From TrEMBL, chain A:
Record has Zinc as a keyword: no
Family to which the UniProt record says this protein belongs: Belongs to the mitochondrion-specific ribosomal protein mL49 family.
Entry-linked InterPro entries: Ribosomal_mL49 (IPR007740)
Localization per record: Mitochondrion
Name of this chain's protein: Large ribosomal subunit protein mL49
Keywords, ordered alphabetically: Mitochondrion, Ribonucleoprotein, Ribosomal protein
Coiled coil: none
One GO-annotated biological process of the protein: translation
Signal sequence segment: none
A cellular component annotation (GO) from this entry: mitochondrial large ribosomal subunit
GO molecular function: structural constituent of ribosome
Automatic annotation (TrEMBL), chain B:
GO biological process, one term: translation
GO CC field: mitochondrial inner membrane; ribonucleoprotein complex; ribosome
Assigned keywords, A-Z: Mitochondrion, Ribonucleoprotein, Ribosomal protein
Coiled-coil segments on the chain, per record: none
Family assignment from sequence similarity: Belongs to the universal ribosomal protein uL4 family.
Compartmental location: Mitochondrion
Gene Ontology MF term list: structural constituent of ribosome
Organism lineage: Eukaryota, Metazoa, Ecdysozoa, Arthropoda, Hexapoda
Name of this chain's protein: Large ribosomal subunit protein uL4m
InterPro entries the UniProt entry points to: Ribosomal_uL4, Ribosomal_uL4-like, Ribosomal_uL4_dom_sf
From TrEMBL, chain C:
Designated name of the protein: Large ribosomal subunit protein uL15m
Protein species of origin: Brassicogethes aeneus
Taxonomic path: Eukaryota, Metazoa, Ecdysozoa, Arthropoda, Hexapoda
GO biological process, one term: translation
A Pfam family this chain is assigned to: Ribosomal_L27A
Listed GO MF terms: structural constituent of ribosome
Transmembrane found in the keyword field: no
Key words, A-Z: Ribonucleoprotein, Ribosomal protein
Protein family according to the UniProt entry: Belongs to the universal ribosomal protein uL15 family.
Annotated stretches, region: Disordered: 22-55
Matching InterPro entries: Ribosomal_uL15 (IPR030878), Ribosomal_uL15/eL18 (IPR021131), Ribosomal_uL15/eL18_sf (IPR036227), Ribosomal_uL15_bac-type (IPR005749)
Any GO CC annotation of this UniProt entry: mitochondrial large ribosomal subunit
Domain Large ribosomal subunit protein uL15/eL18: start-end pairs: 93-171
Length: 176, 275, 292
């Protein structure tokens, strides 16, 4: 490690001898203390400008995408993710996937994790039929009565209790 | 109530069939290709109209994306957007003086004890008439805040959907008028029942000469590039007339922003001093 | 089939035109900041009687009315010495990685390194908070089935075994703070016009990890790594897939130079995104520096 640091020190010392605008290092610099950009004029350091397509392809590979890509159709998805079924037009209600193509069922925690609510968002169509089916399904899992709130206009159902995984499993089996 | 509905009935399908031979033409209007097609909602259709003549001519039908033009009409989100647009650049210059700023009041008015009067240390305390104000406005007070990103997009889609649903949205192929006289435009707007105030939206900020000259003199008919489209303006003007290219732009912008990859960079708290 | 949005839009067709004068927020969403007056909101205005509560003269947080408070009772404990200076590797599970591959967010046909993971936008890294990269955890190691060329910063033995069982290749590599800042948002970094920095060698306490073939360190001997692959296959009981006979062998064996941050781009180069050109230094001393 010490060998590397002495080598670096040598190189940096040599660098300062080259005609580069080596600016004074300002620690904790701010907006008002920074100098304006100046045109360096004729730069005497030798450099080449290349337009190699192989290099440019490497650059394009590492630039971030602007929009989220569409998932590709495969036979099996090992992570357990499942794309939505194709027959959504004929369904009475529709649960739209999120922009990341996942199921919009969330856990709402409050009061130091004592209050646990499950929220099914992005519901379109006959939300009352979905409410009926969900209560039927969840009643088999719980002895206590299933308490829930339906907001038809905003398109969500808020269920008292933590049934996130159960509802995700149920929706996946239905093809949503 | 009936007076509100009758003008709107003009554009419904039943009456259109009666007028169709006079109003529609066989001009080829290129069908639109919708990005991110919606699975559950069907695309909406709208007539493309002309601005060449005072009489209305329907040039063809184009499709509109349901996520943008048939979104849930959230009146509360529209209100939040309008409030934000009005407040974020508002600076209040109301100013009141504090007790040390009011002239005088350095001396104790009367001794602490012995007089039978209440104890006071200055005549300009907030208790006194003419004294300073304890918690009053202090100028300049900015009311800047940023509405969350998706609330702003929701505001745009809700307003566009409401304009489309209430028949106040019209699509034209371009903003080329035959003359630059303002009477032509006024007659056109009146005969088509477009409401007194009209907002023409194009995709660029350089507009054709004739329409610029005509609307220059009319205060309630204005031009706007699509990047300036906002909730407040869409509600202020009764009718919204958008060109077909502007519709392409606004739809693609909204849909791309709804499917962005890097949304974690701007969904957090808005930092004024950081890029 | 009635949809609530369509129901509402249909309703609006017969209602008056929406304008600035007939919109409002949801009732109860906004409360006024006015001072309460009258029997219930007024009198003491919720501040109680006398004391620091009514006089807004509160005791400082943690104060225990005179006795030695809890936060001052205990001196520095030796077990957490230097915790604020330690390197952190925020976790990402193999299940997350598999999900990203299934959702087409990560391209299996190209090497997956920290840059690729950061570009998905799913993994957040904060280098200024002593976070040095990805720690791949073993949740989802049983269902992992992707043949990839993976480069992470920390991986346990089970994770390495799971990746190699699927037919892939895993390496652990170190990136210093400057390199990480460049990798966070490559577009922003190139727009700064700074030459790509040289990746620094790991610090003294990390060198042991990154030169260890059992951890598949990038500074380790490749021959010893291939020996360790066999050892792991025997330990966890799977047949080691022969990557030499694989079609994607070239991609799987692609590796970065210890001084390289991005695949295919050398340190010292300046990328011009606007004109789509790359500026490469030719000055002897610069070339020597960037190649050392």
């Amino acid at each position: 490690m010490s060998v590397i640091s002495t080598k670096l020190r040598l190189v940096i010392n040599n660098l300062s001898k080259i005609n580069l605008r080596a600016k004074q290092i300002i620690r904790h610099g701010g907006y008002y203390s920074s100098e304006y950009l100046e045109d360096l004029g004729k730069v005497s350091t030798k450099f080449e400008v290349t337009k190699d397509p192989v290099d440019w392809k490497c650059v394009e590979n590492i630039l971030p995408r602007k929009t989220i890509p569409e998932p590709v159709k495969k036979d099996e998805y090992p992570s357990g993710w499942q794309p939505q079924a194709d027959d959504m037009q004929s369904r009475p209600y529709y649960i739209e996937r999120t922009r990341n193509h996942l199921i919009p069922v969330y856990l709402d925690l409050a009061q130091h994790n004592i209050r646990r609510h499950t929220i099914i968002r992005r519901v379109k169509g006959d939300i009352w039929l979905l409410e009926k089916e969900v209560t039927e399904f969840l009643q088999t899992l719980s002895n206590k009565p299933i308490r829930l709130q339906v907001n038809e206009f905003a398109g969500f159902i808020r269920i008292n209790g933590d049934f996130v995984n159960a509802i995700k499993y149920w929706l996946k089996n239905k093809g949503y | 109530m009936l007076a509100n509905i009758l003008p709107k009935l003009r554009n419904t399908t039943s009456l259109c069939r009666y007028f169709s031979s006079a109003l529609t033409t066989n001009e080829n209007i290129e069908p639109r290709h919708l990005q991110y097609p919606s699975v559950y909602q069907k695309p909406r259709q709208i007539w493309v109209e002309n601005l060449d003549s005072i009489d209305e001519r329907k040039l063809g039908l184009i499709e509109l994306h349901p996520t943008v033009f048939a979104a849930n009409p959230r009146i509360d989100i529209i209100h939040q957007n309008v409030r934000w647009q009005q407040l974020y650049r508002y600076v209040s210059y109301a100013h009141t003086k504090l007790k040390f700023e009011v002239r005088g009041g350095g001396r104790k008015p009367w001794p602490q004890k012995g007089l039978g009067k209440a104890r006071h240390s200055s005549i300009r305390s907030p208790l006194w008439k003419g004294g300073g104000i304890a918690h009053g406005p202090r100028s300049p007070t900015p009311h800047f805040y940023m509405l969350p990103f998706y609330t702003r997009i929701n505001g745009l889609t809700s307003t566009l959907s409401i304009k489309f649903a209430q028949d106040d949205l019209h699509v034209v192929d371009n903003l080329e008028l035959p003359t630059d006289e303002k009477s032509f435009l006024e007659e056109l707007v009146k005969s088509r029942n477009w409401g007194p105030s009209v907002l023409f939206v194009d995709d660029t900020d350089i507009m054709p000469r004739n329409i610029t000259a005509a609307t220059d003199e009319i205060k309630h008919i204005n031009l706007m590039p699509v990047y300036g489209l906002n909730v407040y303006s869409m509600l202020k003007y009764e009718t919204l007339v958008i060109t077909r290219s502007a519709i392409d732009l606004i739809e693609s912008k909204i849909l791309e922003n709804l499917n962005r990859n890097d949304d974690k960079t701007f969904t957090g708290k808005y930092k004024v001093n950081q890029v | 089939m009635s949809k609530s949005a369509d129901k509402a839009l249909n309703l609006l067709r017969s209602l008056p035109r929406l304008c600035l004068g007939n919109i409002r927020d949801n009732p109860g969403s906004r409360s006024s900041r006015k001072r309460g007056r009258g029997q219930h909101g007024g009198d003491k205005h919720g501040a109680g009687n006398k004391g620091s509560g009514q006089r807004q003269n509160y005791m400082r947080l943690g104060y225990e009315t005179g006795n030695n408070p809890f936060y001052l009772r205990f001196p520095n404990e030796p077990y957490y010495k230097g915790h604020h200076l330690k390197r952190q590797y925020p976790p990402m599970s193999m299940l997350d990685l598999q999900r990203l591959i299934d959702l087409n967010r990560l391209d299996m046909s190209k090497p997956i390194d920290l840059v690729a993971i950061l570009n998905t936008g799913v993994f957040k890294l904060k280098p200024d908070q002593h976070q040095f990269g990805v720690n791949l955890t073993d949740e989802g190691a049983d269902i992992f089935k992707a043949k990839i060329n993976l480069e992470v910063q920390w991986a346990s033995e089970l994770v390495i075994a799971a990746v190699e069982k699927a037919g892939g290749v895993i390496t652990t590599a170190y990136y210093d703070q400057h390199s990480l800042q460049a990798m966070l948002n490559t577009r922003k970094f190139f727009e700064r016009g700074i030459p790509i920095p040289r990746r620094m060698t790991p610090p003294a306490d990390a060198i042991e990890y990154y030169t260890d073939p059992t951890k598949r360190g990038y500074l380790a001997d490749p021959e010893k790594i291939s020996e360790e692959r066999l050892v792991l296959a025997q330990k966890y009981g799977y047949t080691l897939p022969k990557i030499e006979e694989d079609k994607t062998y070239e991609m799987l064996t692609q590796r970065k130079d210890p001084r390289q941050i991005f695949f295919g781009l050398n340190p010292g180069w300046v990328v011009n995104l606007r004109n789509k050109v790359i500026l490469k230094p030719q000055e002897e001393k610069l070339v020597e520096f960037y190649q050392s």
